[in-house]
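User: My instructor asked us to take a sequence, write out its structure as tokens, and then describe one feature of it. I'm not sure where to start. Here is the sequence I was given:
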Amino acid sequence: MAGRLGSVETTRRRLFGDLAHEIRTPVSVLEAYLEAVEDDVRNLDPETVTMLRDQTRRLVRFSDDVAALVQAEESQASIAPASVAPERLIDTAVTTAADRFATKGVALTWQARGDLPVMWVDPQRLGQVLGNVLDNALRHTPPGGRVDIAAHSGESSVTITMTDDGDGIAAEHLPHVFERFYRADGARDREHGGAGIGLAIANALVEAHHGHITASSQGPGTGATFTIVLPVHRA
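Assistant: Let's start with the prediction itself. The structure tokens for your sequence are:
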């Protein structure tokens, strides 16, 4: 018990430290720009306004992400399952992400390998899972790259894989990619706009469906594959 309490306390301290770090950067930028405007070092021109808006949007996005993570970790309390065709869910996720992928110049494709059974899932929550994993793949795949989605069924489950040819993940980071605020390369991920929460949300929502999500990679520069396995029938 003492060991578990110590682990909880360590996790709590890390969580608050991560929260403080994420908030500190945009707040510091906002403060510096406002002081520069007050001291007439900068004018409140369109460039400055754009920078201020970017930082406030970053704070709003971070607040939304944290709220989504808390809600996801409430598990089944926020799950409203129904009978849903996997093809429809994946089609919707791909259509929703298509413009962002086209803008960056990353190809996005998907195919079903055989007939897929109807699943008992929350379409909104599973759509959130697919969207988060796709966003992560897009952030770490350079222009000219590709992300491929495939789905197939087993005896009592549906497996969805998302494979990219982007940055890849080093072996020492693979066990941690679904942890809150975890980044394999913090500086690079901040440039990409990730807060290290999207995959933690995906993991919590998949587990709420009694499924599991895993990540695999051969290392940096080799791309990565995320695999989502969900039961077909009511748990």
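For the description part of your assignment, you could build on this observation: DSSP finds six helices and seven strands in the chain. Try explaining in your own words what that tells you about the chain.
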